[in-house]
Write a structure and sequence with these properties.
This protein has a two-stranded antiparallel ribbon. The two termini are 32 Å apart. The chain has a domain of 74 residues: lambda repressor-like DNA-binding domains (434 Repressor (Amino-terminal Domain), Orthogonal Bundle), CATH 1.10.260.40. 71% of the residues lie in helices and 1% in strands. It contains 23 helices and two strands. Helix 9 runs antiparallel to helix 10 and helix 9 packs parallel to helix 11. Strand 1 and strand 2 form a beta hairpin.
């Protein structure tokens, strides 16, 4: 069974829902057909599943005649179709980042967990992030931020490692939500916790570069990433160090592309590709580095450079490689959202919509919580005829008009 079929196997088909709603209103097929300016035969075929409602404009017309909103007609799995409201959770993270109480004092409500317990909780939160469960990560962050600040441990280096790990996670998920200022604050806290240590500093610099790009400070992002690369000792084989260096090179390349420095972006991705060829794959705490990750970055750079044909070509080659399915769900979904723009710029509305639907299947919260995803979906709706699965996604996130 296909992924799409598996997803909808317990949902009544849209035609059956149309028939049920029509019957509840006491309308015959002929009366209903007259209202929507279609033939009785067309209505019968849709209700029997012979035809599919595959255009948003038609779905809206049908829903209007039935006296319901399009999302009622398109209703599917309620849990998956809901839009996550993260505003309150972001406020809680903001409050946690705004506290400057002294470490080692503990919480008035409960004792601070041990380093081992906190590290385990941070690992769980990073796993949730890898799977694109951003609302869940947001709910975990306030406690992790407070506890990492209150932690009193006889080995300060290990406590610093934990603080960098937690603040990096906060920065990453805040970047996803377009909260650039907060992401920068969290990344800056990670850099401070690194306390001049080259390894911790290089990890924190990944988050810092991402936050700076979100704020439109691409030159500063490139500088931060490249300064960190220079601090990493690559003389001896070490997958962790190679993965971090390669990820920083990708961040620098993306920043260069935003600054219209195509030459630098190309050189930096070539350096990253050479590292990936030597080191294989590395996936840990927001670092998903591999040859496929480099190819996805190249596709994104081509999009930003205006070469959308090349972007789609590189995208298709990357997702056809074995490494595509080894990437975290959030990484794959984020890329599919990004590449939708290239499809739209080429006038391929169908491919753009399918990329967004696929992103929703891979990591629903990546589509449902990110402003950039909503913008891409809005653009796809306005660009042309909309397929049924795209219309269903649009209704789920509250976008029912082109």
């Amino acid at each position: 069974m296909s992924e799409s079929g598996s997803r909808h196997r317990n949902e009544p088909p849209i035609g059956r829902r149309m028939a049920e709603l029509r019957a509840r209103r006491g309308m015959s097929q002929q009366v209903f057909a007259d209202r929507i300016r279609r033939s009785k035969s067309w209505v019968d075929k849709v209700e029997r599943g012979v035809r599919t409602l595959d255009r948003l404009s038609v779905i809206e017309t049908v829903a209007g005649a039935l006296g319901v909103a399009p999302d009622v007609l398109l209703a599917g799995n309620a849990t998956r179709e809901s839009v996550a409201d993260t505003g309150g959770d972001v406020d809680q993270v903001r409050a946690a980042l705004a506290r400057y109480d002294l470490p080692g004092l503990g919480s008035v409500d409960r004792p601070t967990p041990s380093l081992v317990e906190l590290d385990s909780q941070a690992g769980y939160a990073w796993t949730a992030y890898r799977h694109g469960h951003h609302p869940q990560v947001l709910r975990l962050l306030p406690g992790l931020l407070a506890d990492s600040r209150h932690l009193c441990h006889p080995h300060p280096h290990e406590a610093a490692d934990l603080s960098v790990r937690v603040h990096r996670l906060a920065a990453h998920v805040l970047v996803k939500l377009g909260e650039g200022d907060l992401a920068w604050l969290a990344a800056d806290r990670a850099m401070s916790a690194a306390n001049g240590d080259p390894w911790r500093g290089s990890l924190a610099a990944i988050s810092l570069a991402q936050a700076l790009r979100t704020l439109g400070q691409s030159r500063l992002a490139m500088t931060a990433a490249m300064d960190a690369v220079r601090q990493i000792d690559l003389a001896r084989p070490d997958p962790r160090r190679t993965g971090v260096a390669g990820t920083l090179l990708i961040e620098a390349a993306l920043a260069a592309a935003i600054s219209s420095d195509v030459t630098a972006a190309g050189e930096l991705t070539e350096r990253a590709a050479r590292l990936a060829a030597d080191a294989g794959c590395h996936d840990h705490d927001g670092i998903a580095f591999s040859a496929t990750a480099v190819d996805l970055a190249r596709a994104l750079i081509a999009t930003w450079s205006g070469d959308h044909h090349l972007a789609v070509l590189r995208h298709r080659r990357a997702i056809g490689a074995n490494g595509w399915h080894l990437l975290p769900a959030e990484h794959r979904a984020a890329h599919l959202i990004d590449i939708a723009r290239a499809h739209l710029n080429l006038g391929d509305t169908g491919a753009a919509g399918q990329a967004l639907v696929n992103a929703d299947r891979v990591a629903p919260a990546e589509m449902r919580t990110r402003p950039v995803a909503r913008e891409a979906l809005t653009a796809a709706l306005r660009a042309g005829p909309t397929a049924a699965d795209v219309a269903r996604l649009a209704a789920a996130v509250g976008l029912t008009r082109r």
